[in-house]
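User: My instructor asked us to take a sequence, write out its structure as C-alpha cells, and then describe one feature of it. I'm not sure where to start. Here is the sequence I was given:
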Amino acid sequence: MDISRYIVKDKIWTLSNIFSFARLFMAVFLFYFIYTRHTYVATFLAILAVISDYADGYAARRRNEVTELGKILDPVADKVSVGLSAVALHLSYGLPLWMVIVIVGRDILILIGSLFLMDKVKAVAASQMPGKIAVTVIAMLLLSYLFEFHNIKNILIILTILAIIYSFTSYLIRFLRIMGRKTDKKEAL
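Assistant: Let's start with the prediction itself. The C-alpha cells for your sequence are:
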C-alpha cells in the first residue's frame, strides 16, 4: 500500500493535523503518568487529549482542512492513546489483561480493516456512532480504574464488552457492504 498518496505536501501541517500529532506525542506521557500513578497529571493529559480530539475535528471542518492524512492520523492517535492507557492501567491499577487485549484487539482490527479498505477502495472511512459509543464506554471503564472506583468496575466491564460487540458488528457490516459494492462494480465492468 502506497501511503504517500495520502500525504499531500502542503496538507501535512494543518492546524487539525497538528492537534492529532500532539495527541499522538502526548500518549507517551499519558502512559508514563498513569503507570507511575500520578493520577492528577494523567487526568490533565487525558482531558487535553479529549479536547485536542474535538479541536482537530472542529478545526478541520471549520477551516476546510479535512485531509486524507488527518483521516488516518486522528483515529491512530486515539487508538494509541487508549491502548497505552489501557496497558498502563493494567500494569499499575489492575485492569484485567484480557480486557486490555479486547480493547487493543478491537482497535487493531479496525485499523487493519481501514487499511484494507484504503488499499482496495481508495478511500478512508470515517468513524460512526457505534464506534463513538464504544470509545465513550471504554473511556469510562479506564477512568474507573484510574480513580479506583471499585463499585462500578464490573458493570463497566460488561458495558464495555457489549459496546465493543455492537461497534464491531456495525463495522463488520459496513466493511462487507463496502466490499460488496466494490465487487458489484467489478462484475459490471
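For the description part of your assignment, you could build on this observation: The chain has a mean pLDDT of 86. Try explaining in your own words what that tells you about the chain.
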